[in-house]
Structures are given as C-alpha cells and as structure tokens.
Design a protein that fits this description.
- The complex is a heterodimer of chains A (916) and B (115).
- Chain A is built from 27 helices and 26 strands.
- Chain A has 916 residues and is α+β, with helices and mostly antiparallel strands.
- The two termini of chain A are 62 Å apart.
- With 115 residues, chain B is of the alpha+beta class.
- In chain B, 57% of the residues lie in helices and 17% in strands.
- Chain B has helices spanning 10-24, 29-39, 51-61, 84-112; strands at 6-7, 27-28, 44-45, 64-70, 76-82.
- In chain B, strand 4 and strand 5 form a beta hairpin.
- In chain B, helix 1 (10-24) crosses helix 2 and helix 1 (10-24) crosses helix 3.
- Chain B is globular.
- Classes of the chains: A alpha+beta (916), B alpha+beta (115).
- Chain A binds chain B through residues 1-2, 5-6, 9, 23-24, 26-28, 30-31, 33-35, 37-38, 56-60, 62-63, 66-67, 70-71, and chain B through 28-31, 33-34, 46-50, 52-53, 56-57, 59-62, 71, 73, 75-78.
C-alpha cells in the first residue's frame, strides 16, 4: 500500500515536475517570509531579520535537492537529462547523426526483412493449438530407386483405401486427416456472372478436428457432411475469402457457391490466419473428399497401373492423391507408430501384388511408412529456398556488424575527443556507472531511431522480397506478415546493436579518464589507445566485407551462368499461354477440338509464325510420367511424357536430330507413334538407331519415329529428363491429363503480341479460364527467382559493406593524421620529405588492408561450403574471384587512404607546433 | 552551531511533527518548526529546511495530508493535517519510544554504578 502511494506520488511528480518545483519554491518563500516577520517583531532590522531567517532555515538549495530526490524517480530524472544531452549532441552533428541512423536503419531493416522470410518459410509453426502434436505421414522408397511413377524416393501421397486402413489402425490414440493439395477451382459467387479461380482442398471428415481449428462463424465439416451419400454438398471458407469475396457479412453462411458448376452451401468460416497446411499457398475453400468425382478433381496424383480415372477415386487403391496428417501426442508415438507401419505394410503388399512384374513388385514392397513431426506445415518454398535464406541471413548479419563497427568507430573517435570532459566529470564526483549510462544513451538513441526507420524499411523490403520469392504480384500470404515474432526479433537486434555500438566507446572513455589528470599530454595517450581499438574495428570490417564481396561475386557469376544455360528450346520470340479446361468445364472428348481451335485462333493473329498446344507447358510446373517397356533394351524405365500437336517442335524451337516430326498422318486412326529425346536414345539405344523401334506399356506397341534434342523442359535447375512426346490426337480420352499450354512463335517482340493472343483465345473460347499469357523469357526468369534474389541481395550487401569498410578506413586514417598533426609537423620541420610522410600513412592503411583481406579470405573459404549448394558453374573457392576481390580491395583502400595521406603531407610545421 | 545543542535525530523528527500536529491541529511548515523549537526549549538546533523533506516523507507514507491555505499573516501556505493512520501510528510510536527510553534510562543507571 505504502509503496504504491509513494509510487503514485512520484508518478505525479514526474508528470507535474515543473508545477511541483514551483510548489516547493512557494512553500519555502512563505516560510522565510514568516520567519523574517517574526525576527522583525523581535526587533531586528529587516535586513538582519532576512539573514537570520535564512540562517535558521539552513541550505535552501540542499533542501530543494533533497526534496527533489524524495519525490522523484532519480534514474528517470537522470535519464531525462541524458536524453536531453544526447539529443543536443546529435542535433549538433547532423551529418554524423543522419549517416548513423540511415546505416542502422538499412542494417536493422534488412535483417528484419530477411528474418521475416526465414521465419515464414522455415520456422513459423502452423496457427493451430499445440502444433507440436501434429505429424505427417509419408512412405520412403528403397535407397536409390525411383518409384514406378517417377518419384524421388519420398512418396507423400496415399490412396483413399490406404488412408482408411491407417485411420483404423490408429483408432482412438489420435486422429488422422487426409487432404489434397490446394488446387484451382472455378467458383461463381451468388448473383455474379463471372467465375473466378479459388484455391481449394478436398478434406476428410476429421480434418478440422485433427488440426484443432474451430469455426470463427458457423460450423466446420463434421463426419456427417463428408459421408459419401450426402445429398446436399457443403463447404467451409477462409476468413480471407469471406472478407474479400463475400463482404464479411453474417449472410455468407447458408449462401450457395457454384464450384466447378456444382452448387455448394457455405456452412462456416475458419478463424483469421488459418489458411490450410501449405502456408505459402493459401487455401480459401475446403470441400468434403467425396466431391472428388463430381467436381472432376484429378490433379496431383500418381497411379500405379490401369486406373479408372473418371470414376470415384475413393475406392481405388491404385491412385495415390491424398496427403495424410495427424495429431498424435508425442508420448503415444512409440506405441502408435509401429502399429501404423504394420497396417501400411499390409496395404503395400496388396498394392505390390497388383503390379505387373517382379522388379516393380519388390521395389514397392520395400517402401516403409515414416511418421514425422509437422508443426510447421507443408511449404512449396522451404526446400527450394532454405539454403538461400540461411546464406542471406548470414550475409545480412555481417552487414549489420559492419554498420555497427562503423558507428562504434565514430563514437570512439568522439569519446576520445571528450576524454577531458569525462576526466572533469569523474573528478567532480560523477560515478562510472552514470558515465557509462550516458554514453550508452547515445548509442541506444541512435539504435532506436535506426530501428524505427528500419522497421518501416524492413516492412516494405520483406513485402517486396516475399513477392519476388513467390514469383507473384498478388496478395501476400499472411505467413509473411510482420507479426510479434518479427517485432521481437527487430527489438532484440536493435538492443544488441545499441550495446555493440556503444559499450566499447563507453568503457574506453571511462578507462581513459581514470588516470586522467587534466594534463596536456593526456590527449596523446588517449589517442594512442583509441586508434588501436579503431584499427581493430576497421580490420574486422574489411575482413567481413571481403567475405561478403566474395560471396556476392560467386552468386553473381552463378546467376549469369544460369541465364546463359541453353534450355534446349528457343526462348526468344516465343510466347506462351496457360489455361485450365477441366476447371473451365470442358469434357474430356472436347480436348482435341479445343487444341485445334486454339492453334487456329493463334495462327490468325498477325505476326504469328506458328502455334502448338501441349499437355504440359515448358518450365510450367506441369509434369506427367509413366513406365515404358523399351523394345530393344527389354527394360522398364520411367519417362516423362508430353502430348503435343503437329508443329510443336518447330514452334518451341527444339531441333529434330533424327527421323521426322509429328504431322497430319498421326491421327487417332493412324499407327501409334512417339518421338523420344536424346537422353532416352543414349541410354537405351546406345549406338543404334532408335527410329523404327518400339516402346510402350505394358507391351511396346508404339513406334519411335523421331529423336529430338534434350531440353530442360521442367526447370533450368535440372538437366533434361528422359522424355517421350506423343501426338495429341492419339491420346486416350480422359480428364486425367488435360491440355494446359499454348505456345506461339512470333516474328517480332513477343511482349507486343500478348494482348492480341489473349483476345484471340477469349474470342475463340469464351469459357476457357486463362492463366498466365506472356513471353517465355518471363517464365524462365521466374524459374530463376531464387538465383536472382540471392545474387541481387548479395551484390547490394557486398557493395554496401565495401563502401562502409572504405569509409571506416578513411575515418580512422583521417583521425590518426589529425591526432598526429604535431608529430608530423615536427618530422617535417626536422627534414622529413613529403613522400616519407605519405608512405607512413599509406603503410598504415596497407597493413590494415592486408590483415583484413587475409582474415576475409580465410573467412570466405570457411563460409564457402554454405554457398556450395547455391552455386552453378563456379567453384566455392574460385581462385579468380579470391584474387580479384583481394586486388580490388587493395585498390579501393589505397584510394581511401590517399586523401588523409595527402593531407598529412600538407601539414604546415609552424601551425602544427603552435597549436599546443 | 553551538555545542550544547543536540542535532535532531532524523528518525525522531517525524515523531515530533505528528505529535505537534496532534496537539495543535492543522499547521503550516513554519509554525511546526517554531513549535518544535519552543517545546524543546530551544535545546534543539533544527535546521528548519530539513522539515520539508520530512513532511514530504510523512505525506508519502500517508500519516499526514496537506492542502494549500492561508497563514495568520495572510500568506499562501501549505497546511498539514494528521490523518487517521497518522494518529494510530503516533500512539504506537509513543508507546514504543517510551519503552525504548525507559530501557535506555535503566541501562544508563546500571552503567553509573561503580565497577
């Protein structure tokens, strides 16, 4: 109680400090007047009475000071004084202040931005209760063998019967949910004619219960909603979709959406921030799993043999299309996991028995179930960007360190200049703690101003970077928002920065002031110890910037090498358009005619040389693969497949190196033909002519009529995959593998043809939902977004580091010359030649530079292995880069040293000697 | 400072102030100071200035309260009043003080006996 009252008194005093100072003044004045009056009544003269009153009162100032201490928080009062003092100092040196705040803002902002990405892509847990209990299930193939469906050893998707088997094995020890990957569905809002693409997922009955998500409004899916025989389909929508598309009204619940032409009733809305389990690809709509067939969902799946793709997938064990996640408390896992694995083994054995030959059977049977913690959800970016983000985090931290070193140096120089002040204050009784505090106030003030601007800059930068990473110009997923995790990070970084920048100079000031007698020679002693500290900082800066510049050059070379890669097709004068006939409502038997009409429409546009349609576009993230038996080799291989129209190879510029291209002969009724790429020819027909040979599955029934050059059809990052091209007209009619891409070769700039092509498609096929329409070069540029981002950022970090290090060196040398003016003057007076003087200063610079470069190269070599995974066509220890950077640094530092060195030679001995 | 006058022990000043306020009712600072000097028969050299921090402390812990008013001579002064908590505390302190004083007195008597 009493403490509280004292606290309140002090608080009042703090707020009303000026008024309260007046109050005590008034009270003392009244007291003295009363006393004086009484002394006058006792017979003293007014003058004597006044003195007597003051005598009996004691010290007026002491009383006030004591009073002030009692009523206030001393430290706060001190703080206010320190702040006022610091603000004055900073305003007095506007250039220093601006540079310091600007560099800090850049440093802190860049760190905040990179951390936002790092956290969003790699660390942030899903916004659900107890995410640590979540697991994901997948199968691991036997070491080194690609799956029959062309996988990479990890098989994330399960068939529905297998999922049910696992669900049964788990029982009540936890819960499992099956979910499809986000996929685009065409949605028509009530009362709106236009359809729009919405990312949606099909989910099993326990999906929301497993994740622990509760409805923000309405209700979420229950087992009743997900029953196969349910007549009226329902859906749950995201908070974002509710606000964006349905006007955030309560009326949204109960409204009917047309999803791929099917009426679906909205029953609830998920809480804000919940976007499904792919945080970088936000789902807006969740539908019951049994709607797979009526909605024509046939994406993201693998099949193990002949499947009936157009009938419901729920009962088919040969189609794997579901990601499985679960909530299993860690304590239950040791008992539950073996049970799940046993159940899965039975499922695998059943599946293996359906496969055609012994080899694939044994591979299938060797798959094992893996249960892995899943607190962070799935991410499309994580695998591709992890290395890059960690490397960038390291680099941006180095930039901040260099920034800090620069500011620390400036503050040190200033502290040395203030040494005499500090000496006086110490001898007048200021405590060391108080001095350190005052010194730190300055760096904290700079750091907080820097942090404030840094957060603004960082918020903008993280947004920009996230859009680059995602390769989109659309709305940014919530996971990239500045949240309390990012703010905490920024505050911690700023505090650490302030401490790092300020503590050195604070301690140095006090240490120097200790022996401080206010003598004249002190300046020399101060200067000496200070410059040693400053030089160490500059050497550190140089070393870090060497590391950064080496990394930047390596990454820049990598980007250039990537851009120089010959993709195997001709990307110039090529325009490409993606579309989605299934979602647009096209039936399977309309695919070939759709393809023909699109080609015709494109050819009619002026400037178009040729056009072709394909099942999968180039570098479009679309792939389809199957097993093939190759006649001559007698082996089964897994090859990528693409269905194309005649003129495809000419249009995209993939050269034919043997046989013929597809033409009008290759119709539905003609003999089955295929064109293979060099990879298959080399691997399976080494030395022999593949033309006329056959391949196919299960029997080799398709004749090879041509061989084309290898092309990087999937991504520039990977070498060409074995590829079989087939004529579109000979494609078995089902929805499983629809057409998705139109390629158009034009005679001029493809950018100028974009609008005309888009309009032509719209006119020809008004119902077709179009994706990207643009030059192929833009699509390839998106494929290199990681390389570009990393290279550009590394180059700007490296450039900034270089500049800061040169400034640091310049600053220290200038300070050194200024401090030694007298000495230099004496030397010159004693006959030293200007050249000698210059050599002294340049020699100093050279020593620092060589030490810095040596340390930096060592650091770069040590850090290179972290970059190795990001480089292409350049060794992490590329000698040319290392030597080049060293030479470039030597030149720049020498230039930076030249100015102070020249200033030293201009010292006038007479002026210098007189100055003391 | 005359040597035969004792300095006021800081701790006892508070007690003197509240006792004064109990005896005379609401008073302003100068009156309290004069009263303490008079009661002690000018035995105490009170630096009148020390009174004010002591008053502030008493007010902070809630034994007295204050408000602005007018002195007999018409000056604007701050008038201090004993609070109920202060009154209670005064009785406690008085008893304690007397006990302490009697102990010290006895102790001094013992010391006086020849050793």
């Amino acid at each position: 109680m009493t403490r509280l009252r004292i606290f309140l008194f002090r608080l009042r005093a703090l707020v009303l400090s000026r008024q309260i100072d007046h109050e005590i003044d008034d009270e003392i004045t009244s007291h003295l007047s009363e006393a004086t009056e009484e002394y006058i009544l006792q017979g003293l003269s007014p003058e004597e009475a006044r003195l007597a009153a003051l005598r009996s009162f004691g010290g007026v100032t002491q009383t006030k000071e004591l009073y002030r201490q009692l009523r206030s928080f001393m430290w706060l009062d001190d703080l206010r004084q320190d702040l006022r003092h610091t603000a004055r100092t900073l305003v007095k040196n506007p250039v220093f202040t601006l540079i310091a705040i600007l560099t800090l803002a850049l440093g802190i902002g860049a760190n905040t931005a990179i951390f936002t990405l790092l956290d969003a892509v790699i660390f942030k847990p899903l916004p659900v209760p107890a995410p640590a209990e979540l697991v994901t299930l997948y199968e691991r193939g036997p070491e080194g063998s690609a799956d029959i469906a062309g996988g990479t050893g990890q098989f994330l998707r399960f068939s529905h019967p297998r999922f049910e088997r696992l669900e049964q094995a788990l029982g009540t020890k936890g819960s499992l949910a099956a979910v499809t990957r986000s996929s685009r569905f065409a949605v028509r809002l009530p009362g709106v004619g236009e359809r729009q693409f919405v990312l949606a997922q099909l989910v099993s009955s326990q999906y929301f219960a497993t994740l622990g998500v509760r409805a923000a409004r309405g209700r979420l899916l229950t087992p009743e909603d997900v029953r196969v025989d349910r007549m009226a389909p329902v859906a749950v929508i995201s908070d974002g979709f509710w606000k964006r598309a349905l006007g955030a009204t309560d009326m949204a619940i109960g409204q009917t959406l047309a999803v791929n032409g099917m009426s679906v009733t909205v029953i609830g809305i998920t809480p804000p921030g919940f976007v499904g389990m792919w945080t970088d690809s936000e789902a807006d709509l969740w539908l019951p799993l049994p709607l797979q067939q009526p909605l024509h969902y046939q994406n993201n799946s693998s099949s193990y043999g002949k499947v009936a793709t157009d009938s419901s997938w729920l009962t088919q064990d040969l189609i794997a299309w579901l990601n499985v996640v679960g909530r299993i408390p860690p304590t239950e896992r040791p008992r539950v996991v073996p049970a799940l694995q046993a159940a899965n083994r039975l499922g695998i054995a059943e599946l293996a028995s359906l496969l055609p030959d012994a080899k694939t059977q044994s591979i299938m049977a060797a798959h094992t179930l893996v249960v892995e913690p899943f607190s962070r959800g799935f991410s499309f970016l994580r695998g591709h960007f992890s290395d890059a983000l960690f490397a960038l985090t390291g680099m941006v931290a180095m930039v901040l360190l260099i920034t800090c070193a620069n500011i620390a140096n400036l503050l040190l120089a200033r502290a040395a200049g203030h040494a005499r002040d500090v000496g006086i204050r110490l001898s007048l009784g200021a405590t060391t703690g108080r001095l350190i505090r005052q010194s730190l106030t300055e760096s904290f003030m700079l750091a907080s101003l820097g942090a404030a601007f840094g957060l603004l800059f960082g918020g903008w930068a993280s947004r920009y970077l996230a859009l680059q990473v995602l390769g989109t110009s659309q709305q940014l997923p919530v996971v990239f928002r500045l949240d309390e995790r990012v703010l905490t990070f920024a505050v911690v970084v700023s505090l650490a920065t302030a401490a790092a920048c300020g503590l050195g100079s604070a301690l140095r000031a006090v240490r120097l002031a200790r022996p401080a007698i206010l003598g004249t020679h002190q300046r020399q002693a101060v200067g000496h110890a200070t410059t040693r500290g400053m030089r160490a900082l500059v050497v550190g800066q140089l070393a870090l910037s060497v590391v950064l510049v080496v990394a930047a050059i390596l990454l820049g070379q990598t980007l250039i090498n990537f851009m120089r890669i010959d993709p195997g097709f001709s990307k110039d004068q090529l325009l490409t358009a993606s579309f989605d006939p299934i979602t647009s409502g096209y039936a399977a038997d309309r695919m070939p005619s759709l393809g023909r009409r699109l080609v015709e429409a494109a050819r009619a546009v002026p400037g178009v040389v040729s056009a072709a349609v394909a099942r999968c576009g180039l570098v479009a993230g679309c792939s389809s693969s199957s097993a093939f038996r190759v006649e001559a080799a007698g082996e089964i291989g897994v090859f990528h497949e693409n269905w194309v129209t005649p003129g495809y190879f000419f249009t995209v510029g993939i050269p034919l190196i043997g046989g013929r291209a597809f033409d009008e002969r290759d119709t539905e009724h003609g003999p089955r033909v295929a064109i293979i790429n060099e990879s298959i020819a080399r691997r399976y027909f080494s030395g022999h002519n593949p033309i006329g040979r056959r391949l196919g599955f299960p029997q080799p029934d398709t004749e090879i009529v041509g061989v084309v050059r290898d092309a990087r059809t999937q991504t520039l990052h990977e070498p060409a995959v074995p590829m079989v091209y087939r004529p579109l007209d000979q494609k078995a009619l089902n929805l499983f593998t629809p057409l998705t891409n139109l390629d158009v070769r034009v005679s001029g700039d493809p950018r100028r043809a974009v609008t005309a092509i888009r309009d032509a498609i719209r006119r020809a096929e008004p119902d077709l939902l179009l994706g990207d329409v643009g030059p192929m070069s833009e699509r390839l540029a998106r494929d290199l977004s990681r390389e570009r981002l990393v290279a550009y950022l590394a180059l700007s970090f490296g450039g900034l580091a270089w500049l800061l290090a040169a400034l640091g060196l310049y600053g220290v040398l200038s300070y050194g010359v200024a401090r030694r003016t007298q000495e230099i003057g004496v030397r010159i007076a004693l006959g030293a030649r200007r050249g000698q003087v210059m050599r002294v200063v340049l020699g100093q610079s050279l020593r620092m530079t060589i030490t810095g470069i040596a340390l930096g190269l060592f650091g770069a070599a040590a850090g290179a292995r972290y970059l190795a995974g990001l480089l292409l066509g350049v060794a992490p220890l590329d000698p040319g880069t290392f030597v080049g950077v060293s030479l470039a640094f030597s030149v720049v530092t020498t230039l930076a040293a030249y100015v102070p060195a020249r200033r030293a030679t201009r010292v006038d001995p007479l002026t210098a000697l007189r100055s003391e | 400072m005359t040597p035969d006058k004792s300095d006021v022990l800081y701790g006892t000043l508070g007690l003197m102030i509240i006792k004064t306020l109990e005896a005379l009712g609401p008073l302003h600072g100068y009156r309290i100071a004069r009263r303490i000097e008079q009661i002690s028969g000018n035995q105490l050299a009170l630096n009148q200035g020390t009174l004010y921090p002591a008053l502030l402390k008493l007010e902070q812990i809630g034994w007295i309260s204050s408000k602005w008013g007018t002195s007999e001579s018409g000056r604007r002064v701050r008038i201090y009043v004993l609070t109920r908590a202060g009154r209670k505390q005064l009785h406690k302190e008085e008893a304690q003080w007397q006990r302490a004083a009697s102990i010290v007195e006895r102790f001094l008597k013992i010391s006086e006996s020849p050793s």
